Amino acid sequence: MENGSIGDVLHGEKGGVLLDWQRRFNIAVGAAQGLAYLHHDFAPAIVHRDVKSNNILLDGDFCPKVADFGLARTLQQDGGKGDVLMSRVAGSYGYIAPGESFCVCVRVLVMWNVLNLTVYASTLMVTAKSDVYGFGVVLMEIVMGKRPNDFSFGENKDIVKWITDVALSSPELNDNITTCNQVDVGQLIDPRMNQSTCNYQEVEKVLNLALLCTSSFPMNRPSMRR
């Protein structure tokens, strides 16, 4: 694609200088529409399993296209739940939901023990909510312009943990609510953007949605259609 991927533009040679807020917002909406089509309108429904900024390509007009379906699987509809049983966890570090990344670590540890290798079998239930988590991370990337595991977040922190901590740090927030409505979003916006062109209400909405998408509990994550 003419403009590479979102990751290329945000983190690569293009440096993000061409992405003002309106363009970033349009990319986020277009990517959401693409995933919604896969989950809800394509038959059979598809779970991508590797949603990340490098897998969302941009054409000459910066219209996003969800790409790289090498790990994708069709969803086996079981009573309308859309669950699929996977023999292994797929995805990229920084974009995998917490429960799934735990399974990855277990698998790596077991692989070191050859004697136990034959008894390992993951029975992880993967749903479309796995893609929703990855999309939430991409939204945070689009706003901040940083990689999910940027060193600036500090030790043992990724972009999800960092933004969640910022949101919950506001004294006006209830502990059981994850939102950025009361937070100065200026500290979260990519400094390379011309902030005078930013729609701060849209930025807040995108961050709030990103926090919902990256909930530790899959049931709390919205569908891509929502």
TrEMBL record:
Q: What is this protein called?
A: Protein kinase domain
Its organism's taxonomic lineage begins at: Eukaryota, Viridiplantae, Streptophyta, Embryophyta, Tracheophyta
Keyword list, A-Z: Glycoprotein, Kinase, Leucine-rich repeat, Repeat, Transferase
Q: Pfam families recorded for this chain?
A: Pkinase
List, alphabetically, the InterPro entries matched.
Kinase-like_dom_sf, Plant_LRR-RLKs, Prot_kinase_dom, Ser/Thr_kinase_AS
Where is each Protein kinase domain found?
A: 1-226
Q: Which GO terms describe its molecular function?
A: ATP binding; protein kinase activity; receptor serine/threonine kinase binding
Q: Which residues form a coiled coil?
A: none
Task: Please tell me whether the keyword RNA-binding is annotated for this protein.
Answer: no
